[in-house]
Amino acid sequence: MSATALAIVGARGRMGHALCSFAEENGFSVVAAIDQGDDLIEGLAAAKVTIDFSARDVSPRVAARMAELGRPLVVGTTGLDAAGNAAMRAASAKIPIVFAPNFSVGVNTLFWLVRKAAAVLGEGFDVEVMEMHHNQKKDAPSGTAARLAEILCEARGLDPAKDVRHGREGLIGARTKTEIGMHALRGGDVVGDHTVFFAAQGERLEIVHRATSRDTFARGALRAARWALSQKPGLYSMEDVLGLR
Ligand code: NAD
What we know:
By secondary structure, this protein is an alpha/beta fold. The protein is built from nine helices and eleven strands.
């Protein structure tokens, strides 16, 4: 079987390097390794599928171009604003897009476990989310932590825009029953740690995931690219790729 032509956007970045090194063993041939200064329009036309791990202002343009071309896209870029998310939704009317804040199998299982734990433990447990990443990460909280907060809000009928409390400082009073605390730590070369705390009177459950290598995200994104090739237009998550929904 001949290799599938793949374009990578953000190819010289940390994730781009990992994707390039695992592409071949996953049946892809990198026909366009695109980074700053390269021609996005021409580069993307050469590929059957594109994987984009670049920057929040770049990914909406990549999605629009892929929609014009009618070819599937995998997006790992985090920190998109409302307009960026709307651009993803608009493009997904024409092409399959797998858009996920985290492509690791372990983290997607964490999403599943957290959804279950929130349902079983109920409102008697206070919930806090803590993440830690390397000192070069530009956005906070991480896309994975934001997704965890979304899942917890869905489970409890809360609104992520109002009920998620980012950090605490000063004389702020006692914790309310409905808030979900969110804390972002930065330092060193940490690839990505996420902990969800469920704390009640007399007991505490902590669900922890630690990524020790970017390889897991790269392999997951390549798996998503293979899956996207046979999907109908739509906006999919890694949970869809893994059949966890
Ligand atoms: P990075 O800064 O190492 O790499 C980003 C690359 O994008 C850089 O090489 C940069 O030059 C390039 N870039 C910037 N503007 C561009 C443009 N106009 N055209 C083409 N390329 C351009 O960052 P990283 O650690 O590789 O992460 C990239 C993104 O992926 C971030 O948003 C990060 O949060 C996210 N990420 C997601 C996952 C996941 O599983 N979804 C995992 C790790 C990182």
